[in-house]
Amino acid sequence: MAGGILPFLLGLLLLAHCASASTHRSNPKQNTEKQKRDSLPTNYTTPDYYPTPNGGWDSNWSAAYAKAQKVVSNMTLAEKVNITSGTGYLMGPCVGQTGSALRFGIPRICLQDGPLGIRNTDNNTAFPAGVTAGATWDKDLIYARGVAIGEEARGKGINVQMGPVVGPIGRKPRSGRIWEGFGADPSLQGIAAAQTIQGMQSTGVIATLKHFILNEQEMYRMTSVVQVGYSSDIDDRTLHEIYLWPFAEGVKAGVGSIMAAYNHVNGSLSTQNSQILNGLLKDELGFQGFVVSDWYAQFGGVSSALAGLDMAMPGDGAIPLLGDSFWNYELSTAILNGTVPLERLNDMVTRIVATWFQLGQDDDYPEPNFSTNTEDATGPLYPGALFSPSGVVNQFVNVQGNHSIIAREVARDAITLLKNVNQTLPLSKNASLSVFGTDAGPNSGGLNSCSDMGCDNGILTMGWGSGTARLPYVITPQQAILNNSANTQFYVSDSFPSVTAAADDIAIVFINADSGENYITVESNPGDRTTAGLNAWHGGDDLVVKAAAKYSTVIVVIHTVGPILMEEWIDLPSVKAVLVAHLPGQEAGDSLTDVLFGDYSPSGHLPYTIPHNEFEYPASVGLIDQLLGQIQDQFTERIYIDYRHFLQANITPRFPFGYGLSYTTFNFSDATLTTGTSLTEYPPARPAKSPTPTYATTIPPASEVAWPTGFNSIWRYLYPYLDDPAAATSTAPYPYPTGYKTTPQPAPRAGGAQGGNPALWDTVFTVDLKVTNTGTTSGRAVAQLYVELPGDTLGVDLPPRQLRQFEKTSILAPGDSETLSLPVTRKDLSVWDVVVQDWKAPVNGEDVKFWIGESVALEDMQIVCTVGQGCESA
Ligand code: NOJ
């Protein structure tokens, strides 16, 4: 197993204390004590929401649910439990796998990371990260990246590929995993996630949208011996308008699974929070797939089942490899003694099996042909078992296809030009160059020498943690620049050498900023950027300053996980050009030189704001580092994260959200505003739910979970079987969680289909406009549409502009034009009415304005359209 796993295991061992005091491990009937925690601040609540709404009521899933019902109605209790429960850490080829129901052709479901390609394998592509895909603002490219990731997952026999990520959304600029998602805005995240999901799932692989929800910081996300994981405390409106928004888009796109996060939400653990799983996700958003736990995020067997968890991963209890579990045999017991209603188990299984049918995995879907645990060809089949049969574990199947092309395109079209004085860029092919910084070169320890990319050495292609993929190769900037200009000196070092610069020499300085997942600490940064802050790593700022003192022309290239501070050098007269190349994956070098040497114009735009300093952010989005008690992370800035905050606080940042220059210029003209579906204050009534599968309600015979005769069990592998099934039955009263009830809740008025009331996606206005390349070089433009809503009419405070739609042109030659169409939905113009519990819009769009520009800043706006008045130049 990967080297980074040791600290992870140690962390898990620490869980023992809390878990044993608070869970349903040994006897589901007895363990009802809740986890001790600091009290929730009084203004936040988690209302109970029981029972779990059954899946299968959305017409897009009818056929799959009908097939699932046939299968599930014939399953034994053991088979049902098998499908819902992981078989244990290191108990198969994938990072997690369930048991099987082979009588019905259902294999052990293989779940594997992650959002930018297949983790821990070979002959795969290391795609650009989510933040890079977001920076392209190109829906087609994002879709194509999703298809390619899906093809690779299928090729490796992965049933469930765990991406994309929309949580963290990027509330905290220092947060470790913001690079896995697409940028600090709900619409950007939502549109990009929907494209990625549709792309991935077009190949038959089940996508997992994660982490549900409010997992905005890495430190203290998990429960340890000294404290339980932090609670993200949030108000209902902010939750709906910012954090739930991209999940709604993912559900609408038909995502097959959603991962419940580690953290608590308003004082209740995400995996057993009935309000967010049963209420928001399964009722209001009409999610028809299955909810899987994050790894070791489950802390109660009955409580998580009742709250809406459908699959437990990796299946172990609080401590891996002890052979115990919250589900598996415990779930069998809980069904036999009635503490988990059979209907709930049937729904869990039906959701999983229906998703498997929905994606067509019953038809010739490959089995895993790789191992996440080892690079060897043969080895133990169940490395977590003390005695395991051995066999072929890696078949080294090459799944790369021609995906290097899409990887390079995404990386190239994400490159964001922030400064370009005197048209310093593009460079001529024979320019005399001096290149500085280790970020231009290879990892000095060797490609993939740091497990899960847990180091910052050489070109930064991605952050670290489970959201990584091994590099099959990397084209370094050094190699790629050399291919374009033989006249280059390389100083692949982070200390500035003693050099003499000729007057026309150009320096290119490479700097980076890394972050990742909490189980690896890199250079004293435990996932989140604690020590590094938002500055460049390895003295990068100093390197730029020193280069700027020697050279009259300095180009800075930045590889970064997110916002980075530039104040030490950005205004120096010799810093002529700055490019953010985000996290480019394996095609780092070629994608960069495509732009540096002018074969392509840069067309990326910032998917977040770059501030002058961290004091410009609200204090509440700083990291919280608190060793005792449960952290109560209060989202007091409410909807004002990233650019929403800068607009509201009237702070001009260093570079605004959406910003990005080109080698050419664009003019937006001939804009028209067309009215579509008429906009009422609230959406029309939601459609009723269709019936969901029904099953026999009698508790199955205990014999269904008896060990099969002659069964050869593997020690510590997790099974659904009980030594004495008859002893499990009981009729003693069970203390269910407070608020638990069995009669269904009234259907939420904001629901009605996948994502919510389908009327929320009615197009109510469309802006069409012409984009013309007015410069002398070919290039691509992004038209970003921001809405200005009348807060007074809606009775809420609002930022003056919010991104809701965008489109990118194809490559336009000088003088060429293209017409772009930007549809705006009812939801795009709505705010969440916390009293009515529905989306409220200004009737007929009165006083709504649409700003279309090349960033969120007013000075980058080109067109403004006002409802009832039409469009004009901004
Ligand atoms: C924990 C991470 O938070 C999650 O994103 C990942 O999918 C699982 N580990 C499995 O590796």
UniProtKB/TrEMBL annotation:
Pathway annotation from the record: Glycan metabolism; cellulose degradation
Family stated for the protein in its record: Belongs to the glycosyl hydrolase 3 family.
UniProt keywords, alphabetically: Carbohydrate metabolism, Cellulose degradation, Glycoprotein, Glycosidase, Hydrolase, Polysaccharide degradation, Signal
Protein name (record): beta-glucosidase
Start and end residues of each Fibronectin type III-like domain: 781-856
Catalytic reaction annotation: Hydrolysis of terminal, non-reducing beta-D-glucosyl residues with release of beta-D-glucose
Domain of life of the native organism: Eukaryota
Top EC class, one word: hydrolase
Chain positions covered by the region annotation Disordered: 23-51
Compositionally biased intervals (Low complexity): 41-51
GO biological process, one term: cellulose catabolic process
A GO term for molecular function: beta-glucosidase activity
InterPro entries on file: Cellulose_deg_GH3, Fn3-like, GH, Glyco_hydro_3_AS, Glyco_hydro_3_C, Glyco_hydro_3_C_sf, Glyco_hydro_3_N, Glyco_hydro_3_N_sf
UniProt xrefs under SUPFAM superfamilies: (Trans)glycosidases (SSF51445), Beta-D-glucan exohydrolase, C-terminal domain (SSF52279)
E.C. no: 3.2.1.21
Known role: Beta-glucosidases are one of a number of cellulolytic enzymes involved in the degradation of cellulosic biomass. Catalyzes the last step releasing glucose from the inhibitory cellobiose.
Signal sequence range: 1-21
